[in-house]
Amino acid sequence: MRPFATPWTPFRLAAPLLFACLMTTPSWADSAGSDRSLQRVRRTQIQAKCAAIDALLEGALAQAGVQPNERCSDEIFLRRIYLDAIGRIPTADEAQAFLDCESPDKRADLIDELLASEGYVSHQFNYFADLLRATSRMRRGPGKPYLDWIKRSLQNNKPYDQFVRELITSEGNILEPDAGAVGYYLRDTGMIEDNMSNTVRVFLGTRLECAQCHDHPYDDWTQKQYMEMVAFTAGIKVGNYYTREERKEYQRLIKQHDMDKEMQRAYRRVNQPLTYAVGGPEHGLYRLPKDYQYSDGKPNEEVKATTIFGDSVDLAFENAPKPRRKRPANAKAKAQGKSAKNQRPPRKYKRIDLDSRAAYAQWMTAPDNPRFTTVIANRLWKRAMGVALIEPVDDIRDITKAADPALMTYLEKQMICMGYDLKQFYRMLYNTRHYQRTSISSDRMAVDEGLTAGPLLRRMSAEQLWDSLATFSVPNIDDLQWETDTKVYDDYQALKSSTVEEKIELAEAYQDRVKNPEKYRALRRKKSRQAAQAQKKAQKTVQTLYQQYKKARASGDEEMIMGMSAEIEEMGFFLDAKGKLRNGRSGYTKYIKRASELNSPERGGHLLRQFGQSDRQQIEASHRDASVTQILNLLNGYVDTRVINTTSTLLLRKILQEEDPVARIKQIYLSTYTRHPTPQEMDEGLRVVKANPRHGYQDLIWTQINSLEFLFIQ
Questions:
Q1: pTM metric for this prediction
Q2: Does residue 625 carry a pLDDT above 60?
């Protein structure tokens, strides 16, 4: 009998046993096409890199006296690569096609096919949304444009270093075309110090949080160094901010239209979407806390942006001119009963725009930064193998040593060599012998700290479970896309193009919305219709450009391709990695969607949250721990209502299309376990169906979905 396989037990009677098992981790452990970004590196080159990785790893294991695991079966590899590459199990048809294929390169072909699919984007988005704490709702502005920007970046296979630079240097209104990256700062509106801590932890694997209030007790960072890092982004304005000219214009409007306080609030409220922006000067200066107590600085002293390690950044600060006359010695402070040391001293440097964020981003993503490349290479190794070479992945220190230093160095060099192309890096990892070995469980690791005989056995994540269950309901879950509501964008464009008089009219209607709500809604609808008409006109123009783009692509005219792409993007549209025209506002079906298309995060009580989806409050806050609510949900919740008791689901329709009970049982095993049943399992399944012809197949499906073999990635 295969690992995980257990004899069938009567429907529902297995609940106590399933509960006990799910609460613990078990102790056992034809050529496909690829997109253009994958074809950039020949497979022979990838194979050479894989051989080098395996040689380094096997040498380290031999030195530790550990024997590598054997090569896993096609069935195990198939299920593993689907879950790791695109975040779901394969359908029965996908499984059968792979298992029937006799090509010696079918594993490499499948890896390329999956990495080129839309499923890759969906699965990677779930990871980055957890890493970046990306949410559908933010305190300042809508979150959807930020989520769309992340997906679009993954869809276009944007190099990781460019992705990070665009996040850090983002500016503009989040509702403008291709400006969704500003959600990175809007997410942390009013928390500039926390944003810096999160940035360094996510992209440099370094925890500076302790130095926010005092010198770091376990590392070399001081509180002053922490504030010098904050200075890189301290000058920008996030959210509801106005320039000096805009404030003057606003004051003029107040006087001209005799606005009272209530009218002013209404005017600001209707114009709020115009303030969902990031911008302002970047002077690279910040002040120490008013209670600063160390000898290397004074309370409220001004400090300039300085990097904590690696090459220093020269921002060419200019000294501020000395004040013409001194203030009365602490006269104001004494009058207010305050201590002199808490008073803000005069500025040491002039406030000039030094583009400090650009310098910050360039320093952070430079290949010679001592941690940037290490962190992303280490993170992706953990994503593929289940355990990182450096654990934890976000607490790297000067004394930190990888489980296999030579391998870690090699991975860093390959990341740089590949131009931070995450798809190619995954492609390299998935093609290694090590990835394709049989797995081990965490309590049987022969070597600590990441040096293992094979990939780590682990449970599905919440998103992997949800997306796998979705394959039972609808076909082609990765490809179902269509346009969704664009109201938030249209309203913004309408407001942006409104005259001052129209904005005042809208504010008056908003102010009176309780007494006359229809008037306010009518004005909103009028402006939205105007914006929708403008969008429709733009779509016609873009379609013409798109036809020219397709001709250029067919002829291989690279210069024309780039020109057409730029024109299309200027109009708020974009071309995905496959050359398809998108407008950044696509989704999946209304009722069954992949986890990446649901709310980020989902509401409490949802299956995703019950199985460990992050609440997006902390970095990588998701978990794979078992709980009582998970078992109850699988036993009596989603599986019952959405899978086995709904005859319209894809799985039951495909089963009922088969006339032979043997073929039906094979279909169930291929759909759930990605393998054929053993002779014993077939006999047991036939007995179940014979004893209960009406519900026997549903009982088998229920039992298998609630089993360890379904919930774990071998």
A1: 0.83
A2: yes
